[in-house]
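Design request, C-alpha cells follow.
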C-alpha cells in the first residue's frame, strides 16, 4: 500500500490513515452512477458513522503457524472492489469510514519460527492500540485482511473497553486453539480463553480432518460449543438452524469472526477445495448483524491472494461480505 505513515507505534509495523484522494483514485467513474468510494464518511467520529474499516497487511501470523503467505495482500485486493460498489438505497455511505491500514514494514525479513512469533506479539500491541479508541467511541471496527492472529488483540481491546469477558463466534474450519507456544494465527482463541477475556467461544463449520484430537479434547474441556461442516453436508438446512439457535441463545455482546479458509476454493492461508460457499458466509454475517445482539467488531482474515486472478476473487468476495455487514447491521 502506498502513502505516508501517519503513526508508527511499533518497530516492524505501522498504522497509517488513508486520505480521501487515495480512495478516490481507486474509483472508476461512470455517468449516472455514484460509487461508495465517492461518498464514504470523512470522519469516524461523526455521529452518522457506525462502522470503521481497517486493513491489516501482514501474513507473518499465518506463516508463524506454517500457513501459506499472501494474507498481506487481502486488503489491497478488497479496496478497489469495495469502493466501486454502487452507492444506492441499500447502503448508507456515511455510516462507514475507511480509516486506513496496518502495514508490515519488512514482510520479507528472514526469521525462524520463534522470531516470527515475536513479531506477531509486537503486532498484537499495535492492533489493540488502533482499535481501542474506535471501540471506546461505540463504533464497530471491521478488520479486513491479515491472519487470524489479529483476533486476539481485537478480543483483548473489546474486553478491556467493555470491562468484562466477551462472547466470540467464529465460522472456521479450524478451532484456532493451539497451544500457548508463542503467538501465531492458530492460537488467538486459546490465548483469549486462558486470559479470561473470552466468556463463551463458539466455532461453527469445523472440518473433522483438520482438527487434531488434542484440539477436540481442549474444546470439550473448555466448554467450547462447536459444529462440524460434515454435518452440514448431510443436513444442509441445519446450518441455518444452528445460526438461528445461536443468535437467540444470548443477548451478550459479541465479536464476529469469519475466516476465509472456510470458503471452498478461496485463495487463503489454508486453501481447501471442500468447504462452504461464499453464500453461506454471507448468510452467517447477515444473521449475526441482523440479530438483537450488540456486535462489538467484525473480523475477516486469512484471504491470501498471490496472483491478479486470485486478487479479483478475494477482492469481490471480501467486498460482498463487508457490504452484507454494513447493509444489514442494526
Amino acid at each position: 500500500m502506498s502513502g505516508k505513515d501517519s503513526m508508527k507505534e511499533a518497530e516492524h509495523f505501522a498504522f497509517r490513515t488513508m486520505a480521501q484522494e487515495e480512495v478516490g483514485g481507486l474509483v472508476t467513474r461512470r455517468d449516472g452512477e455514484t460509487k461508495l468510494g465517492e461518498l464514504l464518511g470523512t470522519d469516524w467520529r461523526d455521529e452518522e458513522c457506525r462502522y470503521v474499516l481497517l486493513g491489516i497487511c501482514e501474513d507473518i501470523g499465518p506463516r508463524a503457524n506454517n500457513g501459506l503467505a499472501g494474507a498481506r495482500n487481502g486488503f489491497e485486493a478488497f479496496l478497489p472492489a469495495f469502493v466501486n460498489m454502487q452507492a444506492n438505497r441499500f447502503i448508507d455511505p456515511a455510516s462507514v469510514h475507511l480509516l486506513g491500514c496496518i502495514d508490515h514494514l519488512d514482510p520479507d525479513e528472514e526469521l525462524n519460527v520463534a522470531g516470527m512469533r515475536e513479531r506477531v506479539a509486537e503486532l498484537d500491541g499495535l492492533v489493540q492500540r488502533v482499535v481501542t479508541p474506535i471501540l471506546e467511541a461505540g463504533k464497530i471496527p471491521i478488520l479486513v485482511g491479515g491472519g487470524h492472529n489479529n483476533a486476539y488483540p481485537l478480543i483483548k481491546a473489546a474486553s478491556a473497553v467493555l470491562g468484562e469477558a466477551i462472547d466470540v463466534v467464529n465460522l472456521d474450519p479450524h478451532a484456532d486453539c493451539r497451544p500457548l507456544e508463542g503467538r501465531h494465527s492458530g492460537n488467538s482463541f486459546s490465548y483469549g480463553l486462558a486470559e479470561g477475556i473470552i466468556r463463551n467461544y463458539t466455532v461453527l463449520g469445523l472440518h473433522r480432518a483438520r482438527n487434531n484430537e488434542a484440539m477436540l479434547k481442549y474444546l470439550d474441556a473448555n466448554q467450547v460449543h462447536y459444529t462440524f461442516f460434515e454435518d452440514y453436508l448431510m443436513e444442509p438446512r441445519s446450518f441455518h438452524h444452528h445460526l438461528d439457535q445461536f443468535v437467540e441463545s444470548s443477548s451478550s455482546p459479541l465479536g464476529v469472526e469469519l475466516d476465509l479458509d472456510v470458503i471452498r476454493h478461496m485463495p487463503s492461508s489454508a486453501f481447501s477445495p471442500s468447504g462452504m460457499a461464499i453464500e453461506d458466509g454471507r448468510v452467517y454475517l447477515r444473521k449475526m448483524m441482523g440479530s438483537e445482539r450488540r456486535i462489538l467488531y467484525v473480523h475477516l482474515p486469512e484471504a491470501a491472494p498471490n496472483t491478479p486472478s486470485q486478487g479479483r476473487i478475494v477482492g469481490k468476495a471480501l467486498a460482498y461480505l463487508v457490504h452484507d455487514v454494513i447493509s444489514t447491521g442494526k
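Comment from the thread starter after seeing the answer: thanks! The domain at 13-328 is CATH 3.40.800.10 (Arginase; Chain A).
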